[in-house]
Write a structure and sequence with these properties.
alpha+beta; Major capsid protein gp5 fold; five-stranded mixed sheet; flat
Length: about 270
């Protein structure tokens, strides 16, 4: 574990750290929906600071004649930290063998961190210089005003639009929490679950993506969208007193869209 997390300064035993790491490892994959739908590069380490874009700026003057210069273009990684505080008595009970330790604040921090990452991938993040999938797509958004049971129609239209742009599958469906609930609760005639029917059409997954407000159909063929991670999500130490320990979940990442036409938004009317 890298030293910048300052874990050695925390009043926690190795067993408690193992418990916290195990809890984070169990909670994070559920909420990190975007990672399941885009290419993942990394982790490259905390010192990794920027993504190479393979491009240069215009020519600038050099201090010698007959010499030109260009600056390489890079996309800086953004550092994301979600703070949380745990009760020291609860952690002491964990060392005594308690199996019902309250780690709710860690669970909440995991969801907050995941929402930030998911939102950056799909919605973009102007302050961090990240253009998201939705904004980058050149396709006119499809509008669905029917019942959730009719999602298969608009998903079929979305796939057709991607294919017309030369974007092959398999495809995936990213759903915000509200839309996910609608799909899960909807059944086809005869009781066939809608989510299974959508997976059959897509040839790929239907994912719950907290931080996304809406619906996106995208290709999973690879190479179109890249999430590049320096420090993957890990728990660090901030401070403590007699009653509590202040910790945080931290990561660094960038995101880039290589093929804008490989995704299309669906607006739910």
């Amino acid at each position: 574990m890298t030293n910048h997390l300052l874990r050695g300064h925390a009043p926690l035993t190795d067993a408690t750290w193992a418990l916290l790491d195990a809890e984070a490892s169990a909670r994070l994959p559920v909420a990190l929906g975007a990672r399941k739908l885009v290419d993942f590069s990394g982790p490259h380490g905390w010192e990794y600071s920027a993504t190479n874009l393979g491009r240069v700026t215009g020519v600038v003057a050099a201090p010698e004649e007959s010499v030109i210069a260009r600056s390489r273009k890079v996309l800086p990684l953004v550092e994301v930290r979600a703070d949380f505080t745990l009760d020291r008595e609860e952690l002491d009970d964990a060392d005594r063998g308690a199996e019902d330790v309250d780690l709710g604040p860690l669970d909440e921090a995991a969801v907050r961190a995941a929402r930030v990452e998911n939102s950056a991938v799909f919605n973009g993040w102007d302050a961090a210089g990240i253009t998201g999938i939705v904004a980058a797509s050149p396709h006119r958004p499809l509008v669905h005003e029917g019942a959730p049971q009719d999602y298969d129609d608009v998903v079929t239209q979305a796939i057709a639009a991607l294919k017309r742009s030369g974007v092959d599958g398999p495809y995936a469906l990213a759903l915000g929490p509200t839309q996910w609930t609608s799909v899960i609760e909807a059944n086809e005639g005869g009781g066939y679950p809608l989510i299974r029917h959508l997976r059959d059409i897509l040839g790929g997954p239907v994912e719950w993506v907290p931080g996304l407000d809406g619906v996106v159909v995208l290709s999973l063929r690879g190479g179109d969208f890249v999430l590049e991670v320096g420090q993957d999500l890990a728990i660090g130490y901030r401070s403590h007193d007699a009653q509590s320990v202040s910790l945080y979940l931290e990561e660094s990442f960038s995101f880039r869209v290589n093929t804008p036409e490989a995704a299309i938004q669906v607006v739910i009317g």
